[in-house]
Amino acid sequence: MPPNRSLGTLGAVLVLGLSLMALPEHHKEAVAVNTRSRLLTSGQWLFSAAIRYARHQAKSRFLLAQNVQLALENMRLREAAMENQRLRYALEFRRAEANRDLIAAAVIGRDPDQLYDTIVIDAGRNRGVQQDWPVITAAGLVGHVASVGASSSVVELLMRAPVSAIVQECRTQGIVSWLRGNYFHLRFVEAGSLVQTGAHVVSSGLGGRYPKGIPIGIVVEVQTQDRDPLFLEVILESRVDFLRLEEVFVMSPVHRW
Questions:
Q1: What's the mean pLDDT when you consider all of the chain?
Q2: C-alpha to C-alpha distances, 70 to 32, 63, 67, 81, nearest whole angstrom
Q3: What is the average per-residue pLDDT within 91-105?
């Protein structure tokens, strides 16, 4: 604090003290009572403010905890609703295919380095699963069982191996191979074929691995090829969400689709 300001403050205090000393006794008593009352009132106000602040903080923490609990509960309910919807869809599909041998299984593993290659399901020899059996969902063909364990199996997805296929509407045949994501090529479709967008592509039954008629995808693009004018470029989209598979069905190949 600067010297001048210190001296000024000291002088003000001295003047105030001398003024108080010069007051009559009843005035001194009134000033003392008033000062004591103000100090007590200020103390009470500060104490009440501290209590109000503490209560506000506790209430805020309680409300925040309640909000977090409600958010978690909403997430659990949303996930349960989505799971119920998937299972209901799968159950309806299972009932529709009651005359076939379908083994319901849950996806329990996936190779993070090969997202489009393989998945692991919780059904193996204990459920009657055998190697090379087709794996499907209500949306279409997923792949086939590559190896079978005691209580789990490795499923090789559709991206790994070409599939002999046929276009339902015009009976044009070709070979389905992976392009990217959920998109596939239908190769070796001759120019002049009557393949159109919106047509359904299913397994042809040739090759012995997949029964005839399993849905593979919908044609989304048909173009002529400049580099190979003898064949059309046919692109189809699978309705199977390969990255989010949670429930699948292993299908006995002895039954026709």
A1: 77
A2: 56, 10, 5, 16
A3: 65
pLDDT for the residue numbered 202:
94
**CA atoms within 13 Å, Cβ hemisphere of 40:** 6
- Per-residue pLDDT tens for 208-246? 889 888 999 999 999 987 777 888 999 999 999 998 899
Cβ atoms of 191 and 232 closer than 8 Å: yes
Q: Exposed, middle or buried, 257 (CB in 10 Å: 0-12/13-18/19+)?
A: middle
Q: Which amino acid is at 149?
A: G
